[in-house]
Specification:
Length: about 260
Amino acid sequence: MDSIPQISLGTAALVIFAACAGFVMLRGLTRMLIGTAVLAVSAWIGFEVWQKAPAISFDWFGKSIAPITVGLPLAAFLSTFFLIRKIAKIIASPYGQKASDETPSGSLPIRLGLRLLLALIPTSAIWFFGATFLRHAGSLAEIRNFVESPNLPDHTPFLAQIKESIDQALPKDWFTTIDPLTADSRLNLVKLIATADDPPPKAVAVLEESQIRDIILSDPQLRELALQGRYSEILRDPKLDRLLENDNLREVLAQADL
């Protein structure tokens, strides 16, 4: 017994308090990560529906209308969020018992290691989804910067710079596979449509291609959207998918320096 170090009551209380605080903090962090992951997945599903909403609107009504292009993605996000949240609660407490009432079992270091390892998955997914959303917003800012420069709010060039920084740090293919709307060929086509009436010097050389010029001038509806500054709707328009099925046209647009 003499070889056992003596610990004062105050020191023991501090150690127990620190251990309990660490456990509660870790449990709270895990819950926060799960909640954030649910939010990220719901936002991603809403984003996917948002990309396809104009095509749905054209199929149903023959034109782009706001209740479909805006309302449908919002409804998809909210319904998915509440559904996944409900499923997560059922899995965590299958019999209505709170997860906090369960007695933890197993070695504490092993549990900590597994939790940290599993936390990396939703954390990485959340980070990538966030980068994808920022890059998409930056793509729209890039179009607006090309068309309306220099009459722009301060945040537009800033978002365009963020997209450029993301592209320098990570391969574009990672993002265009998930978000094909931000492919260079599609962005350049939108830029040409938006500036067809008064093209800047960079666009003139590309517009000399008769095939590209005929495509741009043949759709008054897209040009009307451009005049209204509705670049997001042009970017999501299903007619661009059909135009970009032409391999030669897609290659020319992808290589254009706009």
